[in-house]
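Ticket #4471: structure export looks truncated?
Reporter: QA, pipeline team
Priority: medium

Steps to reproduce: submit the single chain below to the structure queue and open the exported record.
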Amino acid sequence: MPRHCEAPGCGLATRAGKPFCSEHVERHPYIARLVEQLAAREEEERLVRERGVAAVASDGLTAAEILAFLRVHGDRSVPRLARDLNMDLETLELYVDALVARGLLAERRRRRRARIVGLPEEARGPRRRRARRSTPDPEREPKAAAG
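Actual output as written to the record:
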């Protein structure tokens, strides 16, 4: 038996037993929390663009996202990090400046004038070795010359 949308006055059938139809999905508590978080992030970034480095909250959503991304993916150039996080470069640079000044990020080196940032040594976890393939990958093996 199909489930119907819980939005007052709607009554449309929902897909896969979900409580709301696609017109009212934003009423789902999980979606509502995501929308609130996105709005909070936009407000946080707006304040940083207006007020500069001093407005960066070290424990804010965007700073936490930057640190978590670098923890998982390792050092990045600032322009690459901006692309990876889908952030405006100028706004990200304000965050990076603040987090470097507070010791939460480290500037490693510059390559072709791009700043490379990552977590400070003391904040990095143990280095993991890449697992070796147990079976050779035929696409990576050199092809034998036909003879």
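Status: closed, not a bug. The export was complete when the record was re-opened. Leaving a note from the reviewer for reference: The chain has four helices and three strands.
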